[in-house]
Amino acid sequence: MSLNLDTLRQQIDSLDHKLITLLNERAQVSLDIGTAKRQNLDPQEEENTHVYIPGREKQVFEKVTRLNPGPLAPDSLCAIYREIMSASIALQKDVMVAYLGPVGSFSHDASMKRFGDSVQYASQGTIGDVFDAVERGRCQYGVVPFENSIAGSVVPTLDKFVKSKVKIRAETYLPVHHYLLSKSSTDAIRRVYSHPVALAQCQTFLNSKLKGIELVSCASTSEAAHLASKEKFAAAICNRVCAEIYGLDILHADIEDQQDNTTRFFIISDAWDGPTASDKALLMFTVDHRLPGALCDALKVFKDHSLNLTKIDSRPSLQRPWHYVFFVESVGVHGDSQVMNDVVTELANFCLDVKIVGTYPDQRPQDTN
Ligand SMILES: O=C(O)C(=O)C[C@]1(C(=O)O)C=C[C@@H](O)C=C1
Predict the structure, then answer these.
(1) Is the complex ipTM more than 0.90?
(2) What's the 84 CA to ligand 1 centre distance in angstroms?
(3) Which domain holds residue 107?
(4) Which of 141, 175, 209 corresponds to the end of one domain?
(5) CA 56 to ligand 1 center in whole angstroms
(6) 29 and 153 both lie in a single domain
């Protein structure tokens, strides 16, 4: 049977008509949800209402993936739904998201994948600036890198959590692939710019293809691309999108030492959300080092409550020399639950400070569970 192009396009036109009607019906319901969220609140509370609900979004993504009969690829359908919900957020409220810029950084990529195109973004110079933008209320949400699967914890983020009042509302995982971008050819490159963590992730490539070339650290990979675009014999190691943004050519793709290189980001805000089917909680506590076995006792509290730990790290407390703040993330528990309440009470018996830094839906990629 031969297919007629005009007839097929008429079918598409008719389907688009239905889609637009349905999308607007959905948008109207979303507006009503926005009104419901503000019901019975005083003006100050109304201003602080949260329209971004990570647990509900996780549910929607799971549902559309489950319902998808094909031929649309699951990732394509999720990308469409990302934008539908982004528009939905923007209809309910003006939302501003702070990220570590400039445009084209991995933080920018993570933010766009999390919030979509319809919200507004504010590029920040440092991770500290992202925290400050949220803490001072200039942005309702901020996106900060927390840890990388090769390079480990992002120290400036941990240190900011020690001092800041912001809370973690969501987590998101971004596969990280590095590209060598330049205006010149590989042979002519005299200098390579990148973020130190990215340079550390591309050691094998650098040693084989650019041995002995000057490596220059900068604040972000997109800043590196910006610098490389201004110099004739320079290159940057950065995200693919920087090629278009900064007018650079792709010389080498996927140059990271490990192909499953992934960075976990936190979405920070002034409040976390209610429990979902599967949550995590990140706690921070300082143990009194004069008590023998204090750390062991602290960790035993989690064991006693059958809580599985997914992350443990420590940083100097910045308040007392040789006192350490421990970060412990547990899975299968929400920060507002009775279990977490008991854990905090028991920890307080031998820890100097105990704080829940955040609680958020478990978004680990399937293969890391
Ligand atoms: O369910 C909500 O609370 C909504 O605001 C609706 C909706 C959606 O469009 O589905 C929009 C934004 C939220 O982040 C989650 C879901």
Answers:
(1) yes
(2) 10
(3) 19-34+46-175
(4) 175
(5) 6
(6) yes
